[in-house]
Automatic annotation (TrEMBL):
Name of the protein this chain belongs to: Ligase-associated DNA damage response exonuclease
Signal peptide span: none
Membrane in keyword set: no
Keywords from the named record: Exonuclease, Hydrolase, Ligase, Nuclease
Database matches in InterPro entries: MBL, RibonucZ/Hydroxyglut_hydro, Xnuc_lig_assoc
Domain of life: Bacteria
Organism: Aquincola tertiaricarbonis
Top enzyme class: hydrolase
């Protein structure tokens, strides 16, 4: 429609009255960036607008010299008559939803967000939250632009209490048996959630350099993480009890030699699929995602009160059909955003395989 607040263009999502883009994949003059994952935060834009919490990570990834304006949560800035504000998305440090208001219309673009398990919206007591960033905040709007990375009914995350109990049990059993525990997950976001959730009394924690760089940004932003060591700092005898947190790119690399005997595990939402652990060739798969699961997507979308919903990156067709069944005006935007695997450049560099395509997995039920 000609008066839409956000439209899809070859450069990315675009706000015509405000003349700016949201998470554009091609260089533009004015970009609002929802979060610092590589597929949403690209180099080369003239001006960046992002959340205050994302500043450290954005500058470390895009360069200290980018022209960046930051906003606190809920702070409003006017750009050519469009009132812009940012609201927490609960996905990674600084991840924001973008609220746009123009002539009485309100649109919200979600970026990536995390809502799962017992997470309650509308101020009820909440359970499952991402402990490493501000929790997803539902924002009332006329039109909600939602991600759908895990927008299939098979995706239902375990509670974090049971997830971390499983991880701790696995780590403790390995420590007891005298072998290190290698837990692989993406270095920005996933690694910090793993660190914040495990029980550091089981043994020492070693982190890969790529994880350590991001830990520094998280700690600087006030996110509490347990003490960690570089691989070279820990005496060999203590390696046997260590939890090693590293990006998937270390799999099969010489970096692992120093740890001697170890058990390995991979943490990802894709581990929900039968066969995913085997394809990754690891001992254990832990179902852990920084994206909303199927019930989380549904709850988050309905909480906005939006009568119109536009679905981006993920299983657009399935989500659009469900939304239409709820009586909502639903459509999709084609975007160039990736998924978890593509959000970590080190994973790509190491030639890590893409996540499986769930619709083609015979074990899906
Ligand atoms: Zn992301
Ligand atoms: Zn995304």
């Amino acid at each position: 429609m000609h008066d839409d607040l956000v439209v899809a263009t070859p450069e990315g999502l675009y706000c015509p009255p405000g003349d700016f883009h949201i998470d554009p994949w091609r260089p533009v003059s004015h970009a609002i960036v929802t979060h610092a994952h590589a597929d949403h935060a690209r180099r080369g834009h003239g001006h960046y607008l992002a959340s205050h919490d994302s500043e450290g990570v954005l500058r470390s990834r895009l360069g200290e010299d980018i022209a960046l304006q930051t906003l606190g949560w809920g702070e409003v800035v006017d750009h050519r008559g469009v009132r812009i504000s940012l609201h927490p998305a609960g996905h990674v440090l600084g991840s924001a939803q973008v609220r746009l208001e123009h002539r009485g219309r309100v649109w919200v673009a979600s970026g990536d967000y995390f809502v799962a398990g017992d997470t309650a919206l509308h101020g009820e007591v909440s359970g499952d939250l991402n402990a490493t960033c501000a929790p997803f905040e539902p924002v009332r709007c006329h039109c909600f632009i939602t991600e759908s990375t895990f927008g299939l009914p098979i995706y239902r995350w375990p509670t974090q209490a049971s997830l971390f109990a499983d991880i701790n049990r696995w780590w403790a059993a390995n420590a007891e048996a005298g072998r290190a525990s290698l837990l692989m997950g993406y270095s920005f976001g996933k690694a910090q959630r793993m660190l914040a959730g495990v029980d550091p009394s089981i043994g020492p924690i070693v982190v890969h350099g790529a994880v350590d760089t991001l830990n520094t940004a998280y700690r600087a932003a006030g996110v509490p993480l347990p003490p960690t060591f570089a691989a070279t700092e820990l005496p060999k005898a203590e390696m046997k009890r260590a939890l090693v947190v590293a990006p998937p790119s270390v799999q099969g690399s010489p970096w692992l030699r120093r740890f001697g005997d170890y058990s390995d595990a991979f943490a990802s939402g894709w581990m929900q699929l039968r066969g995913a652990r085997r394809r990754r060739a690891v001992d254990r798969g832990f179902v852990m995602s920084d994206h909303a699961d199927w019930p989380g997507l549904q709850r988050a979308i309905l909480a906005t009160g939006a009568e119109r919903v536009i679905v981006t990156h993920g299983y657009e067709a399935v989500m659009v059909r469900w939304l239409q069944e709820q009586g909502l005006d639903a459509g999709a935007f084609r975007t160039e955003y990736g998924d978890d695997a593509l959000e970590d450049p080190t994973a790509e560099a190491a030639g890590a395989t893409s996540p499986p395509t769930p619709t083609m997995d015979p074990a899906v039920s």
